[in-house]
Amino acid sequence: xxxxxxxxxxxxxxxxxxxxxxxxxxxxxxxxxxxxxxxxxxxxxxxxxxxxxxxxxxxxxxxxxxxxxxxxxxxxxxxxxxxxxxxxxxxxxxxxxxxxxxxxxxxxxxxxxxxxxxxxxxxxxxxxxxxxxxxxxxxxxxxxxxxxxxxxxxxxxxxxxxxxxxxxxxxxxxxxxxxxxxxxxxxxxxxxxxxxxxxxxxxxxxxxxxxxxxxxxxxxxxxxx
Length: 225
Fold this sequence. Notes:
Blueprint: H1 7-24, E1 30-32, H2 37-48, E2 55-57, H3 60-75, E3 82-83, E4 86-87, E5 95-96, E6 102-103, E7 106-107, H4 114-125, H5 127-135, H6 142-156, E8 161-170, E9 176-187, E10 190-194, H7 201-222
Helix pairs in contact: 1-2, 2-7, 3-4
């Protein structure tokens, strides 16, 4: 079952859960983990009617962790030395930014061939499917739970960590009305800042394509309102 296949089933679950959450915890900050991630975050925002800063999708931390891990594995270096950036929706249209990723400041293009980099980018996009293949049944849960904990800790302890997460955009990156993975500052108020990175034309086009894929799912959900 793909992420998209889960859309209608998880829409009903997230809608019901959000209605109960709003009833009993009206001041909560929501970290959405269910897939399709970006569309489910949109569901939680629509149902809760919370300020957009208090509804956050967990995806970027997970996707970036996978990207960093695959790079470290290929280069045989500590993952702690790898800095990476992944934008876009949580799925095979995500946008790992090779140009802005490095190993202790060393650009990836000086360490790996374009062919290797392309292969790692594709592996990152399909990381979830790879894990499901190994598990045989069920889905990934170790990395998603660790990512959600990191986000929650930054909010609860007001750490103001800059992390990639699905945020509701209103003009940032030329995108409006959708949850898309971007770098954000997470603190006691939830999303306290969205960082706009200056993208190349190709990167912007890839991000737009990713956002369009999210939009298709959201339109199905909106038709159910």
